[in-house]
Amino acid sequence: MYDVIVIGAGVTGSAIARELSKYERNVAVIEKASDICEGTSKANSGIVHAGYDAVPGTLKAKLNVAGNEKMESLSKELDFPFRRNGSLVLMFEEEDRPALEALYERGLTNGVKDLRILTPEEVRKIEPGVTKQVAGALYAPTGGIVCPFGLNIALAENACDNGVSFFLDTEVLGIEKKRDEQGTYYRICTGSRKNGETIFESRVVINAAGVYADYIHNMVSEKKMTITPRKGEYCLLDKTEGKLIKSTVFQLPSKMGKGILVTPTVHGNLLVGPTAQDIDDKEGVNTTALGLETVMSKASRSVETLSGKKIITSFAGLRPHEDGGDFIIEEVTDASGFIDAAGIDSPGLSCVPVIGEYVADIVNKISPAPRKKNFIATRKGVPSMAEATERERQALIAENPAFGQVICRCEMVTEGEILNAIHRTLGATTLDGIKRRTRAGMGRCQAGFCAPKTVEILARELGVDMEQITKAGGNSGFLDGTNKEVQS
Amino acid sequence: MTDGQNVQVDVAIIGGGPAGLAAALGAKKRGADNILIIERDNELGGILNQCIHNGFGLHTFKEELTGPEYAARFIEEVKKEKIPYLLNTIVVDVDAEGKILTLMSRERGLFKIRAKAVVLAMGCRERSRGALNIPGYRPAGIYSAGTAQRYVNMEGRMPGREVVILGSGDIGLIMARRMTLEGAKVKLVAEIMPYCGGLKRNIVQCLEDYGIPLRLSHTVVDIHGKERLKGVTLTRVDEHSKPIPGTEEYIPCDTLLLSCGLIPENELSSGMGVELSSITGGPVVNESLETNLEGVFACGNVLHVHDLVDYVSEEAAKAGENAAEYVERQIRETSRGIPVCGEKGVRYTVPSYLRPEYMDDPQVIRFRVGSNYQNVSVVVYVNDICVIKIKKRTMAPGEMEQIKLKKSDLEKVCECNKVQNIRICIEEQ
Amino acid sequence: MICICCPLGCALTAVRDKEGEITVTGNTCPRGEAYAKNECLSPKRTVTTTVRVKGEAQAAMVSVKTAGEIPKDKIMDCIRELAGVEVALPVRIGDVVLKNVAGTGIDVVATKNIEKK
Fold first, then answer.
1. Distance (Å, whole) CA B71 – CA B65
2. N or C: which end of chain B has fewer CB atoms below 10 A?
3. Is domain C45-110 classified as CATH 3.10.530.10?
4. A486 Cα to chain C: minimum distance (Å)
């Protein structure tokens, strides 16, 4: 029996696992995908919101400002890319000023620091790339951007380094509420493509299952929950466009709709999106012609020089939206020891640095445990040759000559980095896993040149045939047999 | 890093594909003897190594060769001339002013060389699904035609069994045949334009021979399958290439190959400060194939995408010769030359500038047209006076064209130093 | 049929009369006529493909071609015969990989030089 089981290895589950690993406890994380960071956590804006959006008094409001403050120190501890680039909410019509001022007031109430309302001239001084149509803006210097994969993977690796067991490719099939002389416990039946059925047991279970959190919650509770997948489509632009703006540029919600953001990413691309469409399919991460068109046309209202020709890829993510509109982080009233961390949609990523603590406090109240003495607080990411100085590059190659062999030419990722990504804690086993850990294949050719080489390296290092290597687990293999097979 | 710091070459050639090889031989022929070819892959020959089909070399060798055979002719020549080359070595960065190249390889780590002239010959890459912005899911099973070609021809692996090909460029057509021969079922080739992008010969010998349908004015508008590709939605498009609602058709398949155009790979060039053309995606060059940076030349598909490798070799040999000549003479004047423009149907020209004192006689000017033409004339104007008029039965965007401009053509109009502009147009006969 | 002799791509029509004589129309030059007759009587193609390399090598496959054109209807037979062929290294361009493929009298030869590892 585990002391705590976390369902879901997305950014929320990983943050909780990492926090719990600070205590003397036996913790397991169960994840249905073949890698960490495979759901909502891999397809979002990567924005660390300042905190003026959330309605005062909500959990979102409380955790956002605190999470934003802590992101920087967390990024240093766990070595993931984060930058405080500031954010702007643009207003295009003078008649929208009251709404902008309301947002400002809300920010003050939530405790957002250094908020200012700017004149059009001031906006264009900060962001010359922004449209001349701008009538004013709310400026939040504390707004930031983060690598969503980097954050998720760092938290999970560090949790694992501190003794948390991760079970990937393990899907929860059913949960039974049981009782023994010590009280309630949960019997979780899981299925895995590799290991078949496995039973996990624990008195404390945390539901961090993202868009599936309702499905998990409803297995143990009579008070039913509904999580609606809210689809957001995005376009990612070439690094040549990354300097069009330096802050994250939002649009003030108006009669024109909610608006689309334009932001640089921590790696120097430009990201535009998302749309917001409620759908039924919890796996419905397909983009649509209409969605992508909407993204580009609305975004060009903020930055007129955006060019569709510079799109290198597009994607869609699903935010787990709960009808109440706030996060649900609490012990389920009719299931003692079962804690929901559900409905973590925007600004969930911004709250990550404090969500873990928030949940750990609840766990500690239910079942206290002593602090671990040998907790490892820091973690080093995969080295990046592209970002290294000449001296650092030389040192890496001296350590392992594979750092001299470029595999992904667009992002300058070397074999050394790919080997590191495979052989580290919770190492990559899929092409997408390599991509999220090293950026190989994230550039403008979108893995055209490097995918065959990466597949070959993965197969060699994992000791399997190339045909066993997948894009993202399951049935997502790249190759199907050999030449002339059918004839022979 | 100090190791190799003082290595100085006359001509550094970035890329060991068809362009790089021909440039090296061109430079050698023109008298340079301190040449270095830098190749990122583990063998010379570049993309020709995976182009195992025949049809290469008709112009150069008057016989039909396969890609590897064509490459081998040049590789043997390079070896015979003892031109040094580095394999598995990538150029990380070029300091254009001092022409200091930072190189990196597994064996030697990071090291620098200094060059008197640089020839850019890095080739091109394929337009990706992302750049095409095709909506839908993002499953495994979507490959650029070239990636599939590598799997099939170099590794003997099949990327899938039921194939749809989007784009009727030559690589797409050739892969339709290759996949069929190796046991896959190619369901169709879809082309968004109302005409095929590839050569007639490939339509006949790669599609018709195997009964593979070519669906013109069709494109893929949706991609299905969450893990591995399950199918695509094909639709007819109108004359503006916009999908026509109601014509959607679901085609089950496990593989989608994209053959939708090539893009010169100029990341290194733009990092150096080389001016690029927004039309070709390649450097803006003068008659010597020299970029805006003195002593930096460009040739092959990094300059503009070619249809025939023979023209790449021809162009690259010139670039190599000019680089050698530059090294010999060192100082050149800085004038940019006379602008050469493509107008009325001519999308671009290479070169974009011409200095009469350095031009070949005749000087080859290559260009492409923007759409299909029948019975037209290619007309060259110097200072708005017509100097050349050539009748053409047919012209197509997929085929590179060229005209030869003689010094005497310029002198017909005025003294060479008074030439203001050169324009190339397509006109009705 | 479309003529492939040059970029013009003439639409050719070939009609065979009772005596077996073939008349070609739609061509603009004599090459078109010859092409159409050939395509009707005995269409031939050069086949290019790959065969496996024996043992550990720097390449898994070596590219090959038929040394001359073979009848079009023998293409798949040619492929089937090559399915079982493995080549020992080193191999040089022009080395015969398979003699008299599919009874056509034409050999299959290597089109690439590959050294031993």
1. 9
2. C
3. yes
4. 9
Check A49, A217, A267, A321 and give the catalytic one: A49
Q: Pinpoint the residues of chain A covered by CATH 3.50.50.60.
A: 2-41+149-226+324-366
Within 8 A by CB and 6+ apart from B410, the residues are: B356, B382, B387, B416, B419
- Please state, in angstroms and rounded to a whole number, the distance separating the CA atoms of residues C85 and C78: 11
The one-character DSSP state at A372 is P
Check if B8-125+263-332 and B128-260 are the same fold: yes
Active site residue A49: yes
* Cα–Cα distance for residue pair A340/A326, rounded to 1 Å: 13
CA distance B282 to chain C (A): 26
Architecture of domain A2-41+149-226+324-366: 3-Layer(bba) Sandwich (3.50)
Output the 3-class SS for A262-322. EEECCCCCEEEECCCEECCCCCCCCECHHHHHHHHHHHCCCCCCCCHHHEEEEEEEEEEEE
CA-CA-CA-CA torsion sign (C26, C29, C30, C31): negative
A231: closest CA of chain B, how far (Å): 13
Percentage helix, strand, coil, to 5, in chain B? 25, 35, 40
Q: Where are the alpha helices (DSSP H) in A115-255?
A: 120-126, 148-161, 213-220
C-beta of residue A328 within 8 angstroms of C-beta of residue A339: no
Q: Which of A311, A404, A481 is opposite residue B104, by nearest beta carbon?
A: A404
* Alpha-carbon dihedral B263, A291, A317, A462, rounded to 10 degrees: -30
B394 and C59: CB-CB below 8 Å?
no
The predicted-structure confidence for A378-416, as pLDDT tens digits, reads as follows: 999 999 999 999 999 999 999 999 999 999 999 999 999
- Quick check: A196 and A189 in contact, CB under 8 A? no
**Probe site for chain A from C75, C80, C101 (most A CB atoms < 10 A):** C80
CB C91 within 8 A of CB C115: no
Count of A–B CB contacts within 8 Å? 146
State the average pLDDT for chain A: 95
Q: For domain A390-468, which CATH number applies: 3.30.70, 1.10.10, 2.40.10, 3.40.1670?
A: 1.10.10
Of C50, C61, C79, the CB nearest to A487: C79
Domain boundaries, chain C: 13-41, 45-110
CATH of domain B8-125+263-332: 3.50.50.60
Q: What is the pLDDT of residue B336?
A: 85
Where in chain A do CATH 3.30.9.10 domains reside?
Answer: 87-141+228-318
CB A21 within 8 A of CB A220: no
Predicted confidence (pLDDT) per residue in C6-50, tens digit: 767 788 888 888 888 888 888 888 888 888 888 888 899 999 999
Per the CB < 8 Å rule, is B104 touching A393?
yes
What letter represents residue B318's amino acid? K
Classified as helix, coil or strand, B26 is helix
Beta-carbon contacts of residue A463 (< 8 Å; ≥ 6 apart): none
Mean pLDDT of B124-133: 90
Residues of A in contact with B161 (CB under 8 A): 480-481
Would you kindly state where each structural domain of chain B is located, as residue ranges? 8-125+263-332, 128-260, 356-428
Name the residue among B263, B232, B261, B259 with its Cα closest to residue B166.
B259
Does domain A87-141+228-318 sit in CATH 3.30.9.10? yes
- Residue A192 to chain C, least CA–CA distance (Å): 34
Q: What is the mean pLDDT of residues B257-285?
A: 94
State the average pLDDT for chain B.
Answer: 93
CATH class of domain segment(s) B128-260: alpha beta
| The amino acid at A467 | E
Segments of chain A assigned to CATH 1.10.10 = 390-468
Mutation to test the C interface, candidates A484, A485, A486, A488, most C Cβ within 10 Å: A484
